[in-house]
Amino acid sequence: MEGKGKHTKIGKSFGVGVVGLGEGKGVVKGLHGHPELKIQAVCDTDKTLTTEIREMFNIPNGYEDINDLLKHKDIHIVLLYTPDQLHVQHIRACFESGKHVICTKPLVTSQSEAAEIMKIKKQYPHLQLMVGQSSRFFGPMLKQREAYDTGKLGELSFAETQYVHDMRWFYNNRPWAREGGFDLLFACASHPVDLIRWYMGDVAEVHAFGDRSLIAKDADFKERDIFTINLKFENGKIGRVLGLYGLEHLHQTRPWIEVALYGNQGTFIAKYPQLQANIKYNNGVEHVEHYFEDIYHYFQYEGVNHHAGEFVNYTEYFARCLVKGETAMPDAVDGFKTMATLEAARKSMNENKAVKVERYVS
Ligand SMILES: NC(=O)c1ccc[n+]([C@@H]2O[C@H](COP(=O)([O-])OP(=O)(O)OC[C@H]3O[C@@H](n4cnc5c(N)ncnc54)[C@H](O)[C@@H]3O)[C@@H](O)[C@H]2O)c1
């Protein structure tokens, strides 16, 4: 694929370190040649991978141990793409070294980890921690947010979000997904739950069902991988989230991630990985918008399997927040509200009843 990635202005230069080069290599490619965000070092316990990525993108330094990367004074922002269960220890190490952090989702895997993060954050109030919720930063979702923020949708009556993906490749290729502390509900449904909360606000109550798919049984994956979650928000409105990871024969024409917002002035349905949205405003005709001009930006590394464009978008947004002294969202507290919603969904499935969402952290 030929084309150009997009780099937008920050107003100040920052050194960046990237840890975990599975998903993380997408951002290394995306930030390559950025005029203000320069990757100073990459790190992965897999030495061959580190060397390969370092050489491919001409990165000055490569390490197998995060602590070596953190010694660099010219690294100001660290991007973490390590396995879920390592996020807390890596965030702590970054903060102790005075680095701002963007940590991929899910930020944590349990309430006790969330409490630990809050403790660490209190010790370092001058450092920012943002959750890398990539789906908020995909082209059609950004257009959708703009339409919402400028009042084109009016007041929302209902929202529906989904993440539907055949995750067999994941069950079979990620040994850490079969270890304790991993839950697909948290790892994957964190996307649609974050997206619905972004519009509908805090969740009061959920009623969720979960099942283990035929795919999971075949792959001997022990956890549930099909979820439906009905939500009632603090503002009294309702919504629905689908998290389906164990379905076969999915149609390529249907989005993996979809956000459908139904407002009294318009309806906007944003789709990933399609660079398109279905839109209908008050008194207007239903139409489809395509954003094909951004195809290279989003899919510049290993196509739809990676998230280069979204990762660049959120790193730039984060850096601009640092320059302006604003809190980059979703921050840890917002991330924990998503986790709390997922925790309530887990409880709802286990107890087979509607469950109130409890505060994750005080
Ligand atoms: N849309 C998204 O934002 C998105 C998509 C996929 C995965 N993720 C998240 O990214 C994280 C990694 O997932 P992945 O699919 O890339 O997994 P992966 O297994 O492909 O990559 C993880 C990498 O981290 C390395 N690693 C493990 N321990 C390490 C350590 N202590 N120090 C440095 N490197 C270490 C591994 O060698 C591996 O290369 C997970 O938290 C996952 O939820 C986010």
Can you summarize this structure?
With 362 residues, this protein is α/β, with parallel strands linked by helices.
What key phrases describe this protein's structure?
six-stranded parallel β-sheet, 34% helix, 362 residues, single chain, Rossmann fold, 13 helices, alpha/beta, binds nicotinamide-adenine-dinucleotide, globular, Dihydrodipicolinate Reductase, domain 2, nine-stranded mixed β-sheet
Description:
This protein has 362 residues and is of the alpha/beta class. It is 34% helix and 24% strand. It has 13 helices and 15 strands. The protein has helices spanning 25-31, 47-56, 66-70, 87-96, 111-123, 139-149, 168-173, 184-187, 190-200, 214-218, 295-298, 308-324, 332-351; strands spanning 14-19, 37-43, 61-63, 77-80, 100-104, 129-132, 156-164, 203-211, 226-233, 238-244, 257-263, 266-272, 276-281, 287-290, 355-356. The protein has a nine-stranded mixed sheet with strand order 14-13-12-11-7-10-9-8-15, covered by helices on one side. It starts with 13 loop residues before the first strand and ends in a 6-residue tail after the last strand. The mean pLDDT is 94. The site of nicotinamide-adenine-dinucleotide (NAD) has 23 residues, from loops. Residues 19-23, 43-46, 49, 66, 81-84, 86, 104-105, 132, 134, 174, 187, 307 line the site of nicotinamide-adenine-dinucleotide.
Topology:
Blueprint: E1 14-19, H1 25-31, E2 37-43, H2 47-56, E3 61-63, H3 66-70, E4 77-80, H4 87-96, E5 100-104, H5 111-123, E6 129-132, H6 139-149, E7 156-164, H7 168-173, H8 184-187, H9 190-200, E8 203-211, H10 214-218, E9 226-233, E10 238-244, E11 257-263, E12 266-272, E13 276-281, E14 287-290, H11 295-298, H12 308-324, H13 332-351, E15 355-356
Parallel strand pairs: 1-2, 1-4, 2-3, 4-5, 5-6, 7-10
Antiparallel strand pairs: 7-11, 8-9, 8-15, 9-10, 11-12, 12-13, 13-14
The chain binds nicotinamide-adenine-dinucleotide.
